[in-house]
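Throughout our pipeline, every protein is held as a single compact record rather than as scattered files. Such a record has a labelled line for the sequence and another for the backbone structure tokens. The remainder of this section carries one protein's record, kept here as part of the documentation:
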Amino acid sequence: MSILIKNVYLEGDVVDVFIEGNKFKSIGRDLKIKEEEVDEIIDGSGKAILPSFVNGHTHAAMILLRGYADDMELHTWLKEVIWPLEEKLSEYDVYVGTKLACLEMIKTGTTLFNDMYWHFKGIAKAVDEMGIRAVLSSVFIDFNNPELAQKNFEECKALYEEYSNFNERIIFALGPHAVYTVSKESLIKIKEFAEENNLLIHIHLSETKKEVEDCLKETGKTPAEYLDDIGLLGPNLCAAHCVWLTDKEVELFQEKGAKIIHNPISNLKLCSGIFPYKKIKEKNISVGIGTDGCCSNNNLDMFEEIKVASLLGKISSQDPRAFSAKEVYLAATRVGYEIFGLNGGVISEGKLADCILVDLKDIHMIPCYNLISNVVYSANGSCVNTTICNGKILMKDRKVPREEEIIEEAREVMEKITSISQKRS
């Protein structure tokens, strides 16, 4: 597959971009490429080409629960509403929900997401069909139950053994939910399995004050100190939230090379806390951006997420220069690809051909004195005209193949959820 994008705006110039296979092959003015030898030609006039987004932490299939349980505190929300319902969702439900989430991400410019949810195979099937990239976690929750822990671990190993059969766009990771839902013994086994197989570990960490207080009470350590004591805090750890990190924990993150995914809107909506941007920035810790699940956000639009992330960084630092437009855009693109070990997030020859074309004629983009400032502070997902992932066009002129069918399938699953909800009430 080859794609030639002609006359597109890139970093202050108007160029042609040639994609061959899944990489950017050549970029420059008036490329001498025979159009009859190209599979697809896109007129980039009036558009800017930019790196596509990385949604660093989400639960994609929770899009089925958008608006289902709002205005609640996290732990009550999880225990009384979300977990009981999730037990009733089938692999097919999760497959359909993930397709709907992928559709929303494609339409808003995301080509890579880091997911943690049940029914791994259903999620993998959806990712395969939708053409997007994903880091998929084998979820682990045992509530200190040895039998449940053994069952989880056997499922994890079985999935890993099948990993080679999944699409190459899928990265396998381990997903211990949190320190308050996974036993110490299981966390140690997860660490050992990750080390043996060079796997990423995806975990919720220090999301609420209650989590920190409970961890101190039970272990005598804060969550990050506890993970470090176990040996889990390292360069392969991707920790979501981290809004209650102490100065000592921030130093541990720097020392051990662990990564953080900032989820500003979810943290605000659940009233979990404010991300300590300034002290994390000072230690040069890698920070990506994520939406969290659609039930606590309530969308997957990374344009919204980066704007709120930047604004929160400014107000929490008491500095309008903090978390600048350029910095937050890099966090949601290039840094995201680096965190997940992929050669992308940059429009450059030899990099993975994951990108978006933004409509410069969209009302949100006019006037355009500074493209990245517009993208961060005024644009939204509807400004994305075209989305390309792995050298394949997933959306062109705002149209994704089969999107009406995907939406209709989701509506049918939502009828089942409505029925469950009525019984609960």
